[in-house]
Automatic annotation (TrEMBL), chain A:
Belongs to the binding-protein-dependent transport system permease family. FecCD subfamily. It comes from Paenibacillus agri. One of its GO terms (biological process) is siderophore-iron import into cell. Keywords: Cell membrane, Membrane, Transmembrane, Transmembrane helix, Transport. This is Iron ABC transporter permease. InterPro entries: ABC_BtuC-like (IPR037294), ABC_transptr_permease_BtuC (IPR000522).
UniProtKB/TrEMBL annotation, chain B:
Keywords: Signal, Transport. GO terms for biological process: iron coordination entity transport. This is ABC transporter substrate-binding protein. The keyword Transport applies. Its main location: other. InterPro entries: ABC_transptr_periplasmic_BD, Bact_iron-sidero_bind. The keyword Nucleotide-binding does not apply. One of its GO terms (cellular component) is outer membrane-bounded periplasmic space.
Automatic annotation (TrEMBL), chain C:
This is Iron ABC transporter permease. The chain crosses the membrane at residues 55-76, 88-107, 113-133, 145-169, 233-262, 274-297, 303-323. GO terms for cellular component: plasma membrane. Coiled coil: none annotated. One of its GO terms (molecular function) is transmembrane transporter activity. InterPro entries: ABC_BtuC-like (IPR037294), ABC_transptr_permease_BtuC (IPR000522). Belongs to the binding-protein-dependent transport system permease family. FecCD subfamily. SUPFAM superfamilies: ABC transporter involved in vitamin B12 uptake, BtuC. It is a multi-pass membrane protein. It is found in: Cell membrane. GO terms for biological process: siderophore-iron import into cell. Keywords: Cell membrane, Membrane, Transmembrane, Transmembrane helix, Transport. PANTHER family: FE(3+) DICITRATE TRANSPORT SYSTEM PERMEASE PROTEIN FECD-RELATED (PTHR30472:SF37), FERRIC ENTEROBACTIN TRANSPORT SYSTEM PERMEASE PROTEIN (PTHR30472).
Amino acid sequence: MSDIGLKKEGEARKAPPLWLVFSIFGVILLAIAAVTLSYRVKGLTWSTLFSTTNDEVLTYTLWSIRAPRLLLSIILGAGLAVAGCLLQSMTRNPLSDPEILGINQGASCFAVIAIVGFGERDSSTVILLASLCGAGAIGLLISWLSRYSGNDASRLMLAGVAISAFMGALTTGFILLFETQLIEILYWMAGKLTGTTWSDNKLVWALDIPALIVAFLLARTLNLLGQGEELATGLGVNVPRVRQLIGVLIVVLTGSAVAVAGPIGFIGLMVPHMAKRLGGLDHKVILPLSAIMGAVLLSAADFLSQWLTYPADLPVGIITAFMGVPFFLYLLRRQREGHR
Amino acid sequence: MRKRKLHMGIVFTILLSLALAGCGNKDQASVSGSNTTKGEAAPTEQASKAVSIKHAWGETEFAQTPQKIVTLDFSFIDTLTALGVTPVGNAGVGKTKVPEYLADKVTGVADVGERKAPNLEVIQSLKPDLIIASVDRHAMIRKELEGITQTVAFDDASIDQIMSNVTTIGEMLGKSEEADKVNNGLKAKIAEVKSSMQGSPSVLVVGYFDDHFTVWIKDSFIGTLLTQSGLNYAFNGEITSTEGKGEGTRMALERLHELNPDYIMMYGDSTDKLKSNPLYQDMKAVKEGHLVNVDRDLWARARGPIAADKILTQVQDILKEKSASK
Amino acid sequence: MKLRKWTRFGQIVALLLLLLIIAAVLSLRFGAVNTPLREILAELAGGEPLVLKYRLPRLIIAVLTGINMAVSGAILQSITRNPLAAPDIVGVTAGGGFGAVVVLLVFPTWSAAGLPIAAFAGAVTAAVIVYLFAYQRGGIRPTRLALTGVSVSLGFHSLITFLIVKYALDSSQALVWLKGSLYARSWQHVEMLWPWTLGGVTLALLSHRQINTLQLDEDTVTGLGLRIQLVRVLLLLTAVGLSASSVAVSGTIGFVGLVIPPLSKWLVGPDSRLYLPVSALLGALLVTLADLLGRVVLPPLEIPAGIFTALIGAPYFIYLLLIRRAQPNKSRSR
């Protein structure tokens, strides 16, 4: 991974070999999966697991409730983490995240308008389209802004905060006008994974897998971009086109997540940093690593969200926020050490 | 420099004069019953004796029977209607100004806004001589309400409270006889339901939205009503949910399945999604066909004697079906 | 040259005052209940107090809130040298909102009296946290302040969401107060607010020279020594006081502090003697209009003023962002 020649201070210490890192995370993911699937499932014993069982409830719980939810948290975790990675590269700002920059809120605002305005919570296609539009609109805005904000990290952040405030106001305005559906929407807006179905999964996997693949293929280009736009252009990269493509990927990954689970933030903030610490700066490494770390993080968070305050459950977006905000502060403190 | 000072001076003077103009009126807000009776609509009894009413916000004396009443929650307009009185204004929720089950009995009621934020200007413009408010919801605007006219506040969390409100409000409006009639009628109906019941089937009132269930607790209005009618209300809230004023708990299907009541009165989303879920199919109520769809507005939102009566009628019908099918 | 600057200033102030008076009259005239002018005059002569009881205090609070938030934003933008700074962003409004929500949902019995206090306490706490985190030896670097503000804001917003979801059944009232509404505000609220407005604006105006200095680049400022750093802190406190008191009384009315200062700088230039009063007037105008709209659009329903300030403010803000690419603080003075 160091043959690309990108070096940074702090890179001097020896990073653990890649295969070890990936395997460890793979194992962790499997462990989380096992625990999530089996925690407090009545009637689950080793024998019933391996023999065909007539217990309908058991089968149903495992296959129609736990499994889809687990799978969704895995793909969303991966998608959001990679989206964060892409976003941080595109804005050249290590503090970027779809939630902080308002992309999540844009998507959910449009989605709420769709839910409330069309009164159909079951028309997932409409919600998905609305969500993608919202994410797209804000994504476009952010992309414009990031070109012109130069080296000042805070400008973009503040713009993002203002944008999320605006979208939040719009959303709340709508909700207040349609108060009868208030409670249900409020819950959704904190980002939740309850009630996941196989069709949700189909939707998201169908969108995210191609997006992830394209992202992985772009790794080399991203590396070049990271060295500066002029340099990249000089090396033959069509910068505007690539930026557009990255933007589309971010919109797809974020929009699909919001459409299905509401706005879940901070995965895109935390995971790329952790991935870079372990894997260096080569996007060929970081992107897959982010994907698997994101999957681990979100599935763990979802597990907590289900069982931390049983029988009530906590929206997973709140758990990621509680993790993410201190992390953000921590990042800020690190910045003082001249990592700008 | 001069110009700026001049400008600041102008701004200041204007603000100051506005403030002074306002300050002069502060002491004029009268609290004790303003008499603007114009001898209109609802004929009320001539109770010329002074009545002193105890309520959640203290004790209020009424020199005369209030004629123009503004109600700020559903249970109050329900109670008034049961007593034969029409308020001049009511606060509703969203598009529902007057609850539907009362709509045919009540007309000509002005809309004073959302019950969570009643419009003070509109209330004042109706020139009421009594406001009936809800203890929890309107605690924040208590002073403002009292600044308009006499205000009383009640809680309406259980059927017993509703009945005692009926008595109190009846006394306040000089309709004590009607109040007793209403209460006795209600008690009779409850007894009727209870006696026609075989055993004491367990029941839960549940809202189903977006894959989650909200279950009303035993101490809620609907819970207490059903309990008094002889049903066994199967859920009294968990420790986690009794902070705040929560009267319902969110729970997942698994937990509902654990509670497994005989009857489930359900409102909300259609249950088609659940049909394939064996946990759902495994519940006693579903197996025996005792999962009944009920109207959300009546069962979850409505409070008051008329509502109670309607709910009990529906309960009777549901139970009759059960005994018919037996 | 100087005379032209002042003449322009005079013209703008006069115009804004006129607009404000018109808005004020409209605000008194219109609402859920129709009050033609003669009724208002009749009231002044001692009739049924509708306008004077409800609309006048509300108008005054709108004006004061607008002044507070705009001036607070102007101060913050000068201190951080960042046109995107505002009380909403430095954690103050989020902290205030959190305090309010805690009282409304967790301790509902304290509501009426406790709400402004809790909101104020929350706002100040948030500001303190931001300050502590942003402080580095020697002072506060503007960028760091902004970023810390963002994260503390986020933190409080998550807490607010958490509480709202937990107490979902009762949260619609919380939302009304959170969104920044002047609903049911009365003379007692006016009394809570105006001392802060007076004090804060006076302090700001008195420090106009320092504010101008702080807008220079960081090295110059550091070179000027400790005294200027102290002034910076003092101004920060003023900004916090202005916005916290406003949040305590009116809830979180956003975008006023964000959008107004750049507009006023564009109108009268970068001299704080000029743009502070103009900001105050513009702020007052914005909030008054927002409140008026909220009351007349769908009576008897009242739409919180905060929603309108967001709807008006945000597109303008985005326009600002898009047209300003280079220096944040260069304004084209005419």
